[in-house]
Amino acid sequence: MLETLRIQNYALIDDLEVDFTGGFNVLTGETGAGKSILVGALNVVLGGRASAESVRKGAKQARLDAAFRIQNPSRRLMRLFDEHTIELEDATLLLSRVVTAEGRSRAYVSGRLVPVAVLAAIGDELVDLHGQHEHQSLLKTDRQLELLDAFADTERDAADLARSVADLRKLEQAVAELESVDRSKARRADFLRFEMEEIDGVHLEPGEEAELRSRRNLIANTERICELTARAYALLYDSQERSAIDAVDAALSDLEALGEIDERFRPLTGQLTDVRANLDQIAAEVRGYTGEIDYDPAELDAVNARLAVIGNLKRKYGDSVDAILQYRDKAFEELQAFDQRDLRLADMRVRHDALAEEATQKAAALSGKRRAAAKKLDRQITAALQELGMKGGRFETHFETCNLAAAGIDRAEFLLAANPGETLKALRHVASGGEISRIMLALKAVFARADKIPTLIFDEIDAGVGGHIAGKVADKLSELAALHQTICVSHIPQIAAAAQTHHNVAKTTSKKRTTTTVSRVSGEARAEEIARLLDGSVSDVSLSHARELLAQHGTA
User: Fold this and answer.
1) Is the pTM of this model over 0.85?
2) 3-class DSSP state of 513
């Protein structure tokens, strides 16, 4: 609730501090005394428009401070505190606004400089200011749906739906991101498949390139190999002159003869016999190798072609057959990962469809409850308007079905016709001033328990009100004050008498300077102020009537 409002160098106010209480507060005073200046100052400190003209003549700047005691803050207010790292000290929050004579302004929350928009957002959660000011939550369509949910007792349903829709949107974003990634990944996958098909189509074998190069070397040197093997065989075995075998046989014959003469030659005979056997084997292998050579020019072309294919793959995928095969294996693993993404995406789409169906059903059920409650709300507010003297006034909650959103499938707007024969209009298009204040009073009275805004201020609620209706307005304000701090600017004695705290606004002139002052009145001084409201002056009759009004409301 608003505890203290301090105003310095603002309009007709030099330096003024007003302390408010919980319950019903009223501000009275003669026309032009400055009651609306107080409300205007409060509007500015709550983030409303500020101008250089509001700075007191001769002052460099105006300063406005509003101290609030915060109890049971709304979720929206706590969110604002968290977003802007605002901390409370002893449950007290200080909103401040400085306006310079040049028209520049600065906003503060508990001494911390903040954008005016932040100040206004916090102010919207603390005060509803009804009159010719912008701090009227009921004029905002998003708040109207929230109030309807509070009235219909569907806040938990709405919160549950909001969570489901948030989960749905999060999943939709994940699907979209995965699909976006998959478009580029799909191109990558197609390219990998092409590369794998190119590699697999060649049917590479480990070590194949070395074998091919060896084979090509043999084929390229076939004539030389034939020439050398033929000559080697001839020298070993088949020379027309004397072959190596012939020489060994001759030497072996001589050694055998020597062995018969001297036994020391016999081991040499054995060794040379082994040499003779080895030469036979070598000669046979050389002859056999020569016989195996089958020179085919087409085979050389095939080997060269195969090596060219391998060389082409090496330029793309690796510097060896083994490297190419490793690249192919990695491409396969990457493709498998893509397949897993496809499975994941398919699973996400299934979950999305299920969640969308669930959220749609919740939204439909919530919409039904809202529309049923709206009929009851329309009847109650229409009746309240009648009580406050707006005969023929009608209230209606208009619904439009929209796409599924966090708030559901409903777009709700409060419509009102203030007088008989008028067409229903959105609240924001209804007449301003006292009429809108009474309309808001009717709405606030019905929404009293549903509304979470702690402080309500009614400016110019007197327009067109008198007699019996004035008493009804006072009763509604009293009912409202039982649940919300209520501050009312009024000229009506019945309203003033119903208040628990009464402030009198006066204007004084000293040394050619006019100053607005505010004083709390009680006891006989209060009775005299109400008597003045009754009759324009204080008389025995008006004073007696004033005392009766105070006694009637139990506020004497």
Assistant:
1) no
2) strand
Residue 47 near residue 121 (C-beta atoms within 8 A): yes
Q: Give the closest residue to 407 by CA, choosing from 370, 358, 446, 377.
A: 370
The dihedral over CA atoms of 465, 467, 471, 476, expressed in degrees to the nearest 10, equals -30
Coil/strand/helix, residue 114: strand
Following DSSP, what letter does each residue of 131-166 receive, concatenated? SSSS--GGGSHHHHHHHHHHHHT-HHHHHHHHHHHH
Choices 3.40.50.300, 2.40.10.10, 1.20.1250.20, 3.40.190.10: CATH for 2-132+435-521? 3.40.50.300
Please choose, from the candidates 339, 68, 146, the residue with its C-alpha nearest in 3D space to the C-alpha of residue 138: 146
387 within 8 A of 369, measured Cβ to Cβ: no
pLDDT tens by residue, 160-186? 999 999 999 999 998 887 777 656 677
For the chain, the structural domain boundaries read 2-132+435-521, 154-431
Tens digits of per-residue pLDDT, 58-71?
899 999 999 999 98
How many CB atoms are located within 10 Å of the residue 115 CB? 12
| Contact predicate 71/452, CB 8 Å | no
Instruction: Give the separation between CA 61 and CA 161, rounded to whole angstroms.
Output: 48
* C-beta atoms surrounding 134 within 10 Å: 15
* Gap between the Cα atoms of 121 and 119, Å rounded: 6
